[in-house]
Q: What sequence folds into this?
């Protein structure tokens, strides 16, 4: 499949996954609103609030994957992949607001414990929500595996937390109303709020890393170095820089070759190296700069000094 065909296929997969999450959130929002009114449960209210934010977040995800799928243009020469990180960051803001609201309501309920009404209804609605969410998460997991989309991955984490949230709602209703453990509903509400806040922190950190062009981890960088150094015409690699934007990896580096090598020969070597790198990192954007062996860059990055895998020229 060509790079253009792969991009079109990725866009279609991520768009379908985003639309699926929007459809699910819309359906569950109505169902949980009815259950929250009927039961008066803080845990169910927290679940409702989370689903409402799910809907907003899913709409933002849909926007993000749509923008990210747009090809590079004259104003965005590196593409639009960071739109996914922006969508993910916005989702984490919504999750944080939801967590704070749930915690506030739970604390108020602890001060004045009132058992939820019609607990069987709340439990039934939560079971339906869990079954539907399981199906969506499985679908999203396949989409992420195929596309590497950060926005869909963050949305998937959001819905995975819903599985625990709905389980907590069931436990809260059973303990508080059916078994008589007063305050259990509020306690589970606080646990849900803490879980959502922690998940938001992790997702935000991932999104910020992408927006700030964080370098790859050492293992991936060493893989690139090893691939390049394996070419017999290469005397060393330095100035390696890596980042990821959306689903696209960007790799650039300098290589040392024989000073007497012709431009044509050097170009052929760079094509071979690029093919080897792309075999390990499909779809990456690779930029290679050629230097005569032993040449030292004026602004050689400190993190790469002394790490060029030099070879004998003999």
A:
């Amino acid at each position: 499949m060509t790079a253009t065909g792969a991009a079109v296929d990725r866009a279609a997969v991520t768009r379908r996954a985003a639309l699926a999450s929007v459809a699910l959130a819309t359906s569950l929002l109505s169902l949980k609103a009815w259950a929250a009114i009927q039961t008066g449960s803080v845990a169910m209210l927290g679940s409702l609030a989370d689903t409402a934010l799910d809907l907003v977040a899913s709409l933002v995800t849909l926007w993000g994957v749509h923008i990210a799928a747009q090809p590079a243009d004259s104003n965005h020469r590196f593409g639009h992949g960071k739109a996914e990180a922006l969508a993910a960051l916005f989702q984490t803001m919504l999750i944080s607001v939801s967590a704070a609201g749930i915690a506030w309501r739970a604390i108020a309920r602890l001060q004045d414990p009132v058992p939820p009404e019609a607990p069987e209804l709340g439990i039934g609605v939560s079971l339906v929500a869990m079954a539907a969410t399981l199906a969506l998460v499985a679908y999203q997991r396949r989409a992420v595996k195929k596309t590497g989309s950060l926005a869909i991955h963050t949305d998937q984490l959001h819905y995975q937390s819903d599985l625990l949230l709905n389980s907590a709602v069931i436990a809260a209703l059973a303990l508080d109303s059916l078994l008589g453990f007063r305050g259990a509903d509020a306690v589970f509400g606080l646990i849900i709020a803490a879980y959502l806040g922690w998940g938001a922190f992790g997702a935000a950190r991932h999104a910020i890393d992408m927006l700030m062009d964080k370098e790859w981890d050492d293992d991936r960088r060493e893989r690139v170095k090893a691939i390049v150094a394996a070419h017999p015409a290469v005397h060393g690699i330095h100035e390696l820089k890596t980042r990821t934007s959306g689903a696209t990896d960007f790799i650039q580096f300098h290589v040392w070759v024989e000073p007497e090598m012709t431009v044509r020969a050097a170009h052929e070597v760079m094509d071979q190296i690029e093919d080897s790198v792309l075999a390990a990192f499909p779809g990456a954007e690779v930029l290679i700069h050629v230097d005569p062996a032993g040449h030292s860059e004026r602004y050689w990055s400190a993190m790469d000094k002394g790490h060029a895998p030099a070879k004998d020229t003999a």
